[in-house]
Structure formats: structure tokens, C-alpha cells
Amino acid sequence: MPVVQRMMLLVGFALLGLASLIWLGQAKMGEVYEEANYGNINSVPSILVLNDLSTYFGILRVRIDRYVLNEDISKSAEIETKVKEAQNNFISTLKKYDTDGCLAGTCISDGQDKQLLADVVSAFDQYLPGLQKVLDVSRQNKKDQAREVLLQYVPLAQKVNAAIQAQEDYN
């Protein structure tokens, strides 16, 4: 084999090697981009939705307290409406996390995330009857009894907050 052919073969292999390196580099850059961009697509929007969830639960608790502490019967209906609004905001934010809260897609990224959301829902479902009981007793103008019921459900409220915090920590 003449020297020219050997040189051409060597240059050909070198070009093939460079093309392979370029292709491999592009493929790896795409993988790195996908992994790094996951935070923008899922983690950050998830944290924002969970922050809203925590805020709405705090608002709900404050509004229940205001309802129980309220002495002006004329404002009771208005405060109760705000309690229901806060409850609906919390529930809709839970659904948003599950369905379209992260760039029009679910915020649930894996099985553990799904379980943590189920824990939040379960804790809230345990808290909800206490909320209704407080409202019912308070409507009967039994404020002292309503405060006692409210105090009984503080551990469940803390459980809801802890479940939300666990989900935030995971994300």
C-alpha cells in the first residue's frame, strides 16, 4: 500500500474518530441538559405550588380562629364564606399539584412524591371533620365549646403542616 493511501486511511480514521467524539459529546450534553433542566420543569414549580398549599392552609386556620372568636353575628356569614373560600383554595391547589401545577403537567415526579401527596390528602381528610364540627358548634353560638373542639384538632392541623413540609423537603 502506497504512502498516500496510508495517509488517506489515517486521515479518514481521524475524521471518523472526530465525528464520533462530536456525536458522543452532543448526546451527553443533551442528557446533562435534561437532568439539569428538571429543576426548572418540576422542582421549582412544585415548590411554588406547595408554598401556595401551605399558605392556603395557614389562611384556613386563621379564618377558622376568627370565626370562633367573632362576637358579631352580622359578620359570621361573611367570615364563614371566607373559611369556605380558603378551604376551596386549599383543595384546588392540591388538585393543581396532582394535575397541572408544573408547566401544565403534574408535579408528581415519582412514587415517593405521589405517596407524600397522598399523606397530605389523608391528613387534610382527617382534619376536615374537625373543621366542620367547629363551624357547626360555633353557629350554635357555643363559642367555648367551639374553642375546645378547635384545640382538639390542633394535632391534626400540625399533621397537615408536617405532611406539606415533608413534601416540600422532598422536592
Word description of this protein:
This protein starts with a helix and ends with a helix. The mean pLDDT is 92. It is mainly alpha-helical. The chain contains five helices and no strands.
Radius of gyration: 28 Å
What's the pLDDT, averaged over the residues? 92
**Helix segment count?**
5
Largest sheet: none
Termini separation (Å)?
63 Å
Backbone shape: rod-shaped
Low-confidence stretches: none
Work out the number of β strands.
Answer: 0
Order of helices and strands: HHHHH
Q: What class would the helix/strand composition place it in? A: mainly alpha
Helix content percent band: over 70%
Strand content: under 5%
Offer a quick outline of the entry.
The protein is mainly α and 171 residues long.
What are the defining features of this structure?
5 helices, 171 residues
Topology:
Elements: H1 3-69, H2 73-99, H3 111-139, H4 143-152, H5 154-170
Helix pairs in contact: 1-2, 1-5, 2-3, 3-4, 3-5
